[in-house]
Design a protein that fits this description.
This protein has 3 helices and no strands. It is mostly helical. Helix 1 packs across helix 2. The protein is globular, with a radius of gyration of 14 Å. It starts with 26 loop residues before the first helix and ends in a 9-residue tail after the last helix.
């Protein structure tokens, strides 16, 4: 399977309004996020760094978390 035909769980990024949020993570997680961002850029042909992808990754995770949805979680306005 070629890199360009690979599908990632996180699809192309939509254009949305944003706010800034800062968080701390391990060195290992940062490296994995950067590796994922590189794969995402190759797959979809648009540059995207880890900081750009993190909100969409979290939104996708929360949307698929059954416990969160049952507990009153709502779908984000942008997704």
């Amino acid at each position: 399977m070629s890199v360009t035909s690979r599908r990632l769980r996180l699809g192309p990024l939509p254009k949305t309004e944003t706010v800034k949020l800062t968080f701390t993570c391990t060195v290992v997680l940062k490296a994995e996020l950067e590796r994922y961002a590189a794969m995402h850029s190759q797959t979809y042909g648009e540059p995207a760094d880890a900081a750009t992808l993190i909100p969409y990754m979290l939104e996708t995770f929360m949307a698929r978390d059954r416990g969160f949805r049952r507990g009153g979680g709502t779908k984000a306005a942008g997704g």
